[in-house]
Every structure is written in structure tokens, then in C-alpha cells.
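subagent[fold] <- orchestrator: predict structure for attached chain, return C-alpha cells only, no commentary.
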Amino acid sequence: MGVVVASAEQLLISKVLKDSSLVDAIGMGVQAKHFSGTNAGLWSWILEFWQSHSEIPTARALGTEYPSVSLGDASGESLSRLVEEVIDGHRKAKVSELMTEALPLLSDGNTKGAISVLSSGLQEVAGDTSTSRDVDLVEQWEARLDKYAEMRERPDKLVGISTGFPGLDRLTSGIRPQQLVTFVGEAKRGKSMLTMVMAITANLNGISPLLVSFEMSVEEQAARHDAYLAKVSHTGLMRGLSTKAEVGRLNKELRLRKNRVPFLLVEDIASTTTVSSLAAKIKQHDPGIVFVDGVYMMDDENGEPKGSPQALTNITRSLKRLAQQYKVPIVITTQVLSAKLSSRVSRRVTADAIGYSSSFVQDSDIVMSVEKDPDYEDRSIVRVLLSRTSPHGEVTIKWDWENMDFTEIGEDDDDDDDEDKDDFHDW
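subagent[fold] -> orchestrator:
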């Protein structure tokens, strides 16, 4: 009978038990998913034991739980090398699975399907490393002072990307890299146009946006973009009813801005976008900010029913990780449960009125509502409901759809009802 050689997975488990180096291994990025078969169960049991007893199980305890397991001697092995081998072995297995899944599609002539399987899967595999980092605050004190001094010198005082609305910028200090920002409101309340304005503002400031829409074609999105730039009727533009003066203004604006950084639109009427496919697009195009309009229509890669609480939990959690991994802000929109609004008159949005899942509140850095102004038909109130970094507050936006002019109502306006509004400088 030949000698059975222990695998890297078994040796890593043996090493962790012998040297009590579980925390070190976790810090290097190894997870239960990197193990296969019985070894995955062994690793999960070790983690559970450690969490329950605040100590790593002994080899004897493992033998009692798994009497038929033989792990091998890892005394001469390097922990970092074993971790690397285990993670690399997992990657090889996943790539092999992807190729097995893609080959039948290629054989059937479905090249696009094969590419989709490979691109989304390989993106997941490529990002399968620990994104955590350890920072010594004492050591980095000088760098932080320099950063604070630099911020004081900035005239706009924005930490992140402008929303296009000064009051909202003052509240949020701009949309920052790694943030997940959620806009929530009733249908037809202006969420889609709000994200378009933010995307255009970013683009005009030299930042490339990526905007995913599940409800509008690229042509319709492009028309909204063009109409906003030229301040002409979106409806008139789509129907060929624009005046000669409007066409001239449109021609001038588009020519003037033809050398901007890319503005990327993604049309997905079939709602097949997943977090992995979005990650592949981020890797491909390297945008400075990402927008997902109608995130509840995204596909969950774990197979949960579209729009279900568990699906949305999986998606929002993954989107937050995606924002952190690529150091890009991600702005999403979702809807409210109309029955849970504060009243029939005010239609005020509260945190428990957010539809589909509580994960929006848990995973988002900022949650903002878009609500109807009870006193004016052509106005909406954008309210900061929840934030990890910003004060609560609100701004009022006047929607002039005919001229595609969306103006924030401030204290300097002539409207009597705006006289007592905060200017937000005091926050």
C-alpha cells in the first residue's frame, strides 16, 4: 500500500491546530469556501469551536469529532505558503468549473453566453482575496494632518463627487469612494432623473460615470442627457418637435462637450445584470462613479427570487463590497412601500417604508428619500434619512420638465415658503 500524501488543505488545518495560528491564516484571506469536501467541514467546525470557546481546538478534540481524519505533519511547512496553495487550488478548481460550463455554450454557438459565464466568474475568482488592511493610527498621524490641511484649502470643501445640488453637497460633502448611497421614493418621483443629473455633473467635472438602467433604453437615456445639457424639452426632442432655437442650442452644447471623458450607459431591459457582471464592467471601463437605477430588478447570483428580501440582502451586501474593492462610489435607487408612508397627505418616507428589504438601511452609507412636496406639485424634497458620515437635513428641488431645468430652491429665492429654510452651512 502506497503512502498517502496529505493535501495543502489538510496540512493547513494541521498547521493551524499545532501552532494556534488560526487568526493569522484568516488575516491572510483564507475562508471556508477555499476548502473542498470534508476539509471544508473541518475548517467550518474549527471556526465554530473558536467562536464558541474563544480558543482553537486541540488535535485530540478534532480526533474526537472526526475520528477517521488524518491530516499529516505540517511542522516544517510555512503558513503563508500553505494559505497561498489552498487559495490557488480553489481558484484553479473554479476556473475549471467555469470552462466546463462555458464549453457547451460555445459548442452550441452561444459565444455571448460563454463569454458572460467566463467574464462574471473570472471576475469573482480574481477578486477572491482578503480586502482587509491593518492601519496604525499612531504611525500615520502626520499624513492625516496633511490631509486635513489640504481639505481646508479646497474652495468647495467637498470630500467626494458633487451631486449637482449645492445644498445636498453641503449635507453630504459629496459622494465618496467606497460609499453605497441609496435613493428611495415612490414611483415617478424623479429618482431616475436625479441620478442622471448626478451622472452628468460628474461627467462635466471630468469623472466618468457608469449608469445601469432596467427601465429605459439607451436612446431614451441619451435623449434625457442631451435635453438636460441643452435645457430643451425631453418629450419634444423625442417626438421631433424641438424648435429651431432649441436644435441650435442642442448642437452647440453637444459640440462644446464632445471631448469629455466617457459617459457609459448600460441598457438592461431584460434585467439580467448581476453583481459579478457589474464588477466585470467596472473592471473593463474603470468608471469614477456607478449608478444602478432600480436595483431591486438585479439578478441574484445565489438563485433567490428577483426582488425577494434575501435576494436584495445578497445584492446590497455585494454592492457594498464591490464599492470597497474598486474604491468607487455606487449610487442605487429603490422604491418604498406606499402603504407604510407616514400619511396620505405628506407622503413622508421613513426607514421602515423602504420596500423589499431592510438591507438598504444596513448596507448603505447614506440613505436619501425623494418625496413629493405637499405644497407644490412641481417640487420634490430630497431628505437625508440615514447616514454614517453626514448630518440629517433636506433640500427642495423644483422640477421644470419642459425645459429640463431642475433647480434647488434655496433661501435666496423669492418664494415665501422658503424664507425659513436652513442654508445648511451650520451643520
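orchestrator: received. Logging for downstream: The chain has a mean pLDDT of 81. Strands lie at 180-185, 209-213, 264-267, 289-293, 330-335, 366-372, 379-387, 393-400, 405-409.
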